[in-house]
Specification:
By secondary structure, the protein is of the alpha+beta class. It is 32% helix and 25% strand. The chain has 19 helices and 25 strands. A hairpin with a 5-residue loop joins β1 (67-72) and β2 (78-82).
Length: 731
């Protein structure tokens, strides 16, 4: 960027070269030989040493001198300087010191190279933006030009044009709007306000921090919290720093001052005596006034228009600019301050709205994260959203929940895009997947339903405009059976899970490839369901692409890194800590490229002595045979009395229904889990048993009524060969 700040010199002719333009403007500012001491700000007052260089216009009350000059020898050491202009206050320039001492450390190599190039070639380097370090650690933005010294001098002449406040105002307003983080926005404002004072503070209402809707409040009810303070230094004990809550009385005074006559306006208190008289409390003075020196303050409200239907302005907070009382705030400065704060107020309100949406989406994401596992499977999950400066939290989700028959579902998915729309679509898909799995559908059937759902959820134009699309969502569903120690998995365009065996070997589980959900442009194929063994101690890893994708590497390399990382998870490791360790090792520090989601499932299975499975022919005596097999087993499980009688009756009715209305062989499975007894009877039929009202003499359906009354819940699960009716009883 080539800045063009205002200058106190008349413009040269249009035919002048950049060198002529700068050197002409510097004619009376270049320190002469023998006047080095006189040219500095630290020269004695009085006489010729204190007067302005000849030819320069006298600075009027409304004009701002912005030009400074430094002479360098061929070793890039300072031989002379003229930095009398007010903007250069705090920039120490000692004769004989190195010029690069004025620069931020990161700029030293580049600027040194430019200085050397001008020395070697004699070609000027004109008008580049540069920062200079002040003594207090702050930085001054200047336009720097490097010229060969005019003969017979040797070395360089460096002109420094301090950025005019109007240019600073524009640059600050542009930079402040780059972040949607409330704290960063407030800190950027505080740093920008230092151009008008020595200390700047930003205090925001609680509603801004929580993301609540801003409303007009009475002065007595408003509460403020310090959001930013500049410069960053060690402050006296008791002084309010970022994160501190303002005392209620201070909040009331500030809010009341800037909303006089219900109209927000800037106020100025000149002198420490006036400030202490207004605060009227030594404690408030210690918390609000920076230091014990004389000081004046300008308070400018952050104001936005009230919500629709509620005309008037709403104050989001207050900014305070403190400086020495001998530098009075002019009317022009107050207008500049109000302009910058007004522009910032809109960004603060946008950040507040973003904070509210971000909190809502994050709450939804957290709500969908798996809860504690069971005694057959242990789960741990990590969700890391992208930085708040992104479009918001994305559509990644993982979930785990129990299913009938002692099984557990593990689901991972990803909706394209970020923000509340993506999170809403994610929530709908996640809840539908849970409902369908709980209703007894298999993983492949659930994905078929979700495939149809995304076409109904997605309004492509509206979704893409909002930054998300349900079309193209990916999902992977795994169902773990702790009795058979097997996992059934189906995948819709998602990255494959990783299975770590008890011996430490690991591999990706790649089911038959299938496009993502809602991919109508491809030939529709049924979702493949793959089953594999998961011995006790196995670890199943589900994740989203943000964990393994890297623009600088292939996806196979990312999967390899993940496989190596989860292979290091030992059976005795705390699973939640292991999950965090895996994520930390695979994601770069700082900003994430995409949301990162990981679920680890350690499968321990059900002990053989707590389960029983029988395969019986479909005959009239099968119910009696099942009772004979189950009765001694229930005694061994210490289920006696009425509970055992109820269990045997339920088992008998389910087997009878399977023989009477089903087909093929009958499979009976009993599982004891704590105080819960699970009974499941499967057959090769596909008719769904339904509970219905019957007449007094209607014998049909009475078995299901018995089951309904004696169990805590019951239902139907569809299998590859037919169906299974399950029931759960308290033992």
């Amino acid at each position: 960027m080539d800045p063009t700040p205002s200058s106190p010199f008349p413009p040269p002719s249009s035919s002048a070269s950049p060198y002529d333009m700068v050197s002409g403007a510097l004619a009376d500012y270049v320190p002469r030989a023998g006047t080095t001491a006189a040219a500095g700000r630290d020269a004695p007052s009085g006489g010729d040493h204190a007067r302005r260089p000849s030819g320069a216009r006298e600075e009027s009350e409304d004009e701002e001198q912005i030009l400074g000059v430094v002479n360098l020898d061929r070793e890039l050491r300072i031989t002379g300087r003229n930095l009398d202009a007010a903007p250069f206050t705090g920039v120490s320039v000692a004769p004989g010191s190195a010029f690069v001492d004025l620069l931020p450390p990161g700029d030293v190599p580049t600027v040194t190279q430019r200085l050397r190039r001008v020395l070697d070639t004699g070609e000027a380097h004109v008008a580049r933006v540069q920062s200079l370090r002040r003594d207090d650690g702050t930085e001054l933005l200047v336009s720097m030009s490097i010229l060969p010294a005019a003969p017979p001098q040797q070395g360089l002449t460096v002109s420094l044009i301090a950025m005019a406040k109007r240019l600073h105002l524009y640059a600050s307003a542009t930079a402040i709007g780059m972040s949607l983080d409330i704290g960063e926005t407030a800190q950027s404002l505080a740093q920008s306000l230092l151009a008008w004072g020595d200390v700047a503070a930003v205090d925001l209402d609680y509603a801004v921090w929580t993301g609540e809707a801003v409303t007009e409040q009475t002065h007595e009810r408003i509460r403020l919290r310090r959001a930013a303070l500049a410069p960053d230094r060690a402050w006296p004990e008791g002084y309010l720093t970022p994160g501190d809550n303002l005392p209620r009385e201070a909040s009331r005074l500030l809010a009341g001052a800037v909303m006089r006559d219900d109209v927000p306006r800037a106020i100025v208190m000149s002198g420490r005596e006036a400030i202490e008289q207004t605060l009227a409390d030594p404690h408030l003075v210690r918390t609000m006034v920076p230091g014990d020196r004389p000081v004046s303050v300008a308070c400018i409200p952050l104001v936005v228009e009230g919500p629709e239907g509620a005309p008037g302005a709403v104050v989001l907070g207050v900014t305070e600019v403190w400086r020495r009382p001998d530098r009075l705030f002019s009317e022009g400065e107050l207008l500049d301050l109000q302009e910058l704060v007004a522009k910032t107020a809109r960004h603060v309100d946008l950040a507040r709205q973003h904070q509210r949406e971000h909190a809502q989406v994050l709450a939804l994401q957290r709500r969908l994260l798996p809860r504690a596992g069971s005694d057959t499977i242990e789960v741990a999950s990590v969700y890391e959203p992208t930085t708040p400066d992104s479009a918001g939290v994305g559509g990644d989700w993982v979930n785990s929940f129990p299913l009938p028959g002692d099984r557990t579902a593990l689901v991972v998915g990803d909706v394209v895009g970020h923000g509340l729309g993506a999170a809403a679509a994610m929530g709908q898909l996640s809840m539908e997947a849970r409902a369908l799995l709980s209703a007894g559908l298999g993983p492949g059937e659930v994905l078929e339903r979700l495939d149809e759902t995304v076409t109904l959820l997605d309004d492509s134009d509206a979704g893409l405009a909002a930054g998300y699309s349900a079309l193209g969502s990916t999902c992977c569903i795994a169902v773990y059976d702790p009795v058979d120690h097997r996992v059934a998995i189906s995948n819709a365009g998602h990255l494959p899970p990783v299975l770590v065996h008890p011996d430490g070997s690991a591999k990706t589980v790649a089911a038959q490839p299938h496009p993502a959900l809602g991919a109508e442009f491809v030939v529709r194929e049924p979702f493949d369901v793959q089953e594999f063994a998961a011995p006790p101690g196995s670890l199943l890893v589900l994740y989203t692409d943000g964990l393994v994708e890297d623009p600088a590497a292939s996806i196979d390399e990312g999967l390899g890194r993940l496989t190596d990382a989860v292979r290091e998870v030992h059976p005795w490791d705390d699973l939640q800590q292991a999950a965090r360790r895996v994520v930390a090792g695979l994601t770069p520090p700082g900003h994430l490229r995409d949301d990162v989601t990981l679920l680890l499932a350690r499968m321990t299975g059900r002990r053989g002595r707590d389960t029983a499975t029988w395969h019986l022919p479909a005959r009239d005596d099968t119910a009696a045979r099942t009772r004979a097999l189950a009765s001694p087993l229930l005694r061994r499980w210490h289920i006696g009395g009425q509970a055992r009688d109820s269990a045997l009756l339920v088992i008998s009715e389910l087997v009878t229904n399977a023989v009477r209305f089903g087909a093929g062989p009958v499979t009976v499975r009993l599982v004891k889990s704590g105080s819960l007894l699970s009974c499941e009877v499967g057959d090769a039929g596909n008719g769904r048993p339904r509970l219905h009202r019957g007449g007094l003499l209607d014998d049909s359906g009475r078995g299901l009524h018995v089951v309904h009354k004696l169990t805590t819940r019951w239902g139907v699960r569809w299998t590859e060969t037919g169906k299974a009716v399950w029931a759960e009883l308290e033992s």
